[in-house]
Amino acid sequence: MSKIEKVKYRQQYSKKSSRRRYNLDVNQKGFLCSCNNREKDCIREAYNILNKYADILWPANIPQSTSSQNEIEDDLQKELQELKNDKNEKRFQVVESGAKNFLFIKTTVEDPVKLAESILNDLSENKSQGTKFLLRLVPIEVTCKAYMKDIEKSFETLCVKYFSEKPRTFSIVFNHRNNNSVSRDDVIESLANMVSKMGQENNLEHKVDLKNAELSIVIEIIRGFACLGVAPNFIKLKKYNLLAFCSSEPESDVAEKVVEVSGSEENK
């Protein structure tokens, strides 16, 4: 192989490598996105809407003109060092979820729930359609291996965060895709018991509400991973369906179920 051919080969290999997809892994946070076979269009729309509202919630910090030159240089040096240490991290990065028509977009933003809720509230208030190919945008606060002990451990922090300060009404949303090894009933019973125990320890009475829960505990099992999040007003906000606010048509069917503590279920 000539020197020129070697250079071309390296360039082509580099381009292919740069296009590689990341995979779902443990300890990630982000958004589970559903689409209808138009994956590339879904990704584009997801990036657009997430960046738009993230810029509103967390505007970039621009150095003030009153700052000293040394302070500005220190800030710039700090930002450069952070970029150097985490050069591969993007604010939003699509990863393979392991299920058809479902994408996972991991994020570095501090609060994916706040971002998703902001988007849904705005669409609800304005009765507008924010996307065409991106159907549903569900915030995920933590991912873990799809084993009972890992799910329980990951939910501990969320349980303290959402159920330790005041009484809440809640529901449980459970889905599994390409995985039949995780017992739906076991997960429901375990997480419901954790919520109940947290309430007892803090003298709070948490109640199940299938029609208008303040909080919905979302568990999405995809292959070997579990995605967990607690979504405010999940039922009221059309189960975070971005197309549902400006249409009289029924919501897209993604086989989601709202589950009672006892294990009985109510289809959409």
UniProtKB/TrEMBL annotation:
Annotated family: Belongs to the THUMPD1 family.
Molecular function per GO: RNA binding
Matches recorded under InterPro entries: THUMP_dom, THUMPD1-like
Domain spans labelled THUMP: 114-232
Biological source species: Sitophilus oryzae
Chain's gene name: LOC115889995
GO term, biological process aspect, one: tRNA modification
Cited Gene3D superfamilies: THUMP superfamily (3.30.2300.10)
Regions annotated as coiled coil: 66-93
Pfam family, one: THUMP
Keywords: Coiled coil, RNA-binding
The protein's name: THUMP domain-containing protein 1 homolog
Superkingdom field: Eukaryota
